[in-house]
Amino acid sequence: MTARPYISDQQRRARLQRRHLLDGSAGHAVTTVADAVVGLHATNASTVHLSAWARGGAPTPEVIETALYRDRSLVKQLVMRRTLFVMTRPMLAESVGAVGPRVAASERTNMLRDLRRDDGPADPEAWIEQARTAVLAAFADGSAYPAPQVRKLLPEFDIAITRDEGKSYGGPSPMLPRMLNYMAALGDVVRGPNSAVWHRSRPSWVAMDQWLGAPLPHVDIETGHRALAERWLRQYGPGTETDLVWWLGSTKTAVRKALASLEVTEVELDGGAVGYLMSDDLDPVESVEPRALLLPSLDPTTMGWKQRDFYLGEHAGELFDSTGNGGQTAWWDGRIVGGWAMRDGAVDVIALEALPPEAERALSIRAEELTAWLDDDRPVVNFPSPLMTRYRG
Question: Closest by alpha carbon to 24, among 286, 252, 269, 389?
């Protein structure tokens, strides 16, 4: 039996730096950055801009804003793991085709559970279909509306279902905003213009085909999984089946079928785990000179693998919250070595291990550069890490 090719942790770190444009190369188009990381995380609006800045793809916030709202070469969509991503149009079609049905089914199930409560409509399934038709009609002329305006436009569908009655967080839950998320997963509508500053999210919704200027190309589930699996393996590989199932938010069956349809090679990772690489991507990647990096909360590199020891080490408890959201991280030589936070208008680096003097100097310089880039802007982090919470407290 032929032994599997061996890929060390050091080689994996070289790959992630090269493939994710964290190697010091500069001047990348924002679409190139988005494809390099297979979609920029957008749950925090600021993550999109800060992730691009870290990779030399956003000299100003306006560069991203132009791509999102004028050129529309990048589009926001709720896809993998029911997470909001910013992606290029080809990846948008693949994601909606591959995981959109799964996200939509989950959204529909959750809506039906609430619509069947005592204060819900007589026919919950009919209500969903009628509400969807009404929303599509309201958007048919290309108009964009924020969710509160959609509720005013369609008062006959503006119902609220009481949830968690008697609890401090309970109360009426409006259904039309949830319909918009459901319809986004189906590819009907999309988050369009943002009326807030770059580091806040206040979107208006618009019909997908109107926003794109053409219908979204149809991609079936299997083709979409195959395309996304190849994208991930080329940018994040090697990775395990567990990594890919987690990243896609899909099933082992779907991932195994996608892997079987691709020209992949099993490789041995440090610790004995089996990973996968595209078969034409087995040659070693040149190492990267040690560099200081400051990545934002939920950066796609930080969140790219389920099994993260090869770049995270022992720092998970300080930098990831209880639900698995990664906070703001400081990197040296391809590894996470700490975090960062803002205090008194300046970026401070908080090391979690002893660092060589050159690393301390480089991280300090990078913190000064980020402070200058942010200027007076103060992005809000929706999911602060334990380290950030303690630092602020």
Answer: 286
What is the predicted pLDDT for the residue at 1?
A: 57
| 160 touches 175 (CB < 8 A) | yes
Q: Which two tokens stand for residue 113?
A: 């559970």
Q: Which domains does the chain carry?
A: 26-219 (no CATH), 226-282 (1.10.10), 292-392 (no CATH)
Judged by DSSP in three states, 273 sits in coil
Quick one: pLDDT at residue 393?
Answer: 55
Strand residue runs (E) in 24-139: 40-41, 74-78, 84-88
pLDDT at 162 over 90: no
pLDDT digits (tens, 9 = 90+) for 248-283: 999 999 999 999 999 999 999 999 999 999 999 999
Residue 165 and residue 184 in contact, taking contact as beta carbons nearer than 8 Å: no
Q: Could you tell me which of 309, 305, 314 has the C-alpha nearest to residue 276?
A: 305
Q: How many other C-beta atoms lie within 10 A of the C-beta of residue 146?
A: 18
Residue recorded with tokens 């407290």: 393
The residues near 267 (Cβ < 8 Å, ≥ 6 apart) are 4, 5, 6, 7, 238, 274, 275, 276, 277, 282
- Find all residues with CB under 8 Å of 256, minimum gap 6, and list them: 241
Under a CB-based contact definition with an 8 Å cutoff, are residues 297 and 328 in contact? yes
**3-class SS of residue 58:** coil
pTM of the model: 0.94
Long-range contacts of 168-175 (CB under 8 A, 24+ apart): 173/114, 175/111, 175/114, 175/115, 175/131
DSSP 1-30: -PPPPEE-HHHHHHHHHHHTT-SS-----H
Tell me the pLDDT tens digit for each residue of 185-226: 999 999 999 999 999 999 999 999 999 999 999 999 999 999
Residue 348 corresponds to which tokens in the numbers above?
């401070």
pLDDT for residue 26: 77
Which residue is it, tokens 């801009």? 49
